[in-house]
Design goal:
Rossmann fold, binds NADPH dihydro-nicotinamide-adenine-dinucleotide phosphate, globular, alpha/beta, 7 strands, 255 residues, seven-stranded parallel beta sheet
Length: 255
């Protein structure tokens, strides 16, 4: 097979959680450009519909909007059923939905800790569980969990213990799941962004200058910088890659 053909997602059926904006939106559009049918799954029904409609218009790919709260197992089951009905199965899942609510550990309300864990870690488990089951019953598949450099490095400037703990959990979850599902033909990997300009990171302006100085490639990334890595991990080009973490951080963690 010609080398570039292995990167094609032609005929693949994908779910991208948090696909309405930011990194998820860029990955959803990238998957559609690479040939996949793409379901967008986030809580806001309007944003979900809008993203699906715009991606379909821009790429001609099939899209589906399924408003979903990844912390709610019934919602996630419904998501996988809708995608299976509409597309005939599920081959790819990008577990991208996530939140970050900074506050000092000594003051952090336990409700905030729980919400972060529910969204960033339990949500990843629930989507993997139900989409993975569909993959196991089908022809296997590929799961890309969007973790973060915060799984590997601390940041004294942003008080985020719950966020760091959740992303560390995602990376450990990925390694374990990869070992359990390799035999089923389901690959599971992490895509670990550095600092990306999105709504989520907009609140961290005060530390941006200091952080930029630490990035060997010299600037924060944009959501589009994550697309190549996500397509690679999802595609047959990564057919022998599982349990891995692909850092896309401009070299931040190398310093
Ligand atoms: P944004 O805040 O821009 O987008 C988050 C997306 O997740 C939205 O579509 C939102 O839609 C959705 N979402 C949030 N909670 C839920 C939920 N409970 N169920 C379903 N969907 C949900 O974030 P980013 O694009 O910046 O981040 C995307 C991922 O990348 C996250 O996992 C984040 O931790 C990770 N990341 C981000 C970095 C950055 O610098 N921005 C760096 C490293 C990792 P809605 O509100 O409608 O549900």
């Amino acid at each position: 097979m010609p080398a570039l053909d292995a990167f094609s997602l032609d005929g693949k059926r994908a779910i991208v959680t948090g696909g309405s904006r930011g990194i998820g939106r860029a990955i959803a559009e990238g998957f559609a450009e690479a040939g996949a049918a793409v379901a967008i799954a986030n809580r806001s029904a309007d944003a979900c519909e809008q993203a699906a409609t715009e991606i379909e218009a821009a790429t001609d790919a099939r899209t589906l909007a399924v408003p979903t709260d990844v912390t709610d197992e019934a919602d996630v089951e419904h998501l996988v059923e809708r995608v299976t009905d509409a597309f005939g199965g599920v081959d790819l899942l990008v577990n991208n939905a996530g939140i970050a609510v900074p506050s000092p550990a000594e003051e952090k309300p336990v409700e905030e800790w729980r919400e972060t864990m529910e969204t960033n870690l339990t949500g990843v488990f629930l989507c993997a569980k139900h989409a993975g089951r569909a993959m196991i019953e089908g022809d296997g598949g590929s799961i890309v969990n969007v973790s973060s450099i915060t799984a590997a490095v601390a940041d004294p400037d942003v008080p985020h213990v719950d966020y760091h703990a959740s992303k560390g959990g995602v990376e450990a979850f990925t390694r374990q799941l990869a070992t359990e599902w390799g035999r089923h033909g389901v690959r599971v990997n992490n895509l670990a962004p550095g600092m990306v300009e999105t709504e989520m990171s907009a609140s961290d302006d005060a530390t941006d200058e200091k952080r930029r100085d630490r990035i060997p490639l010299g600037d924060l990334s944009r959501p589009s910088d994550l697309v190549g890595g996500a397509v690679f991990l999802a595609s047959d080009a990564a057919g022998y890659v599982t349990g891995a973490t692909l850092l896309v951080d401009g070299g931040y963690t190398a310093t």
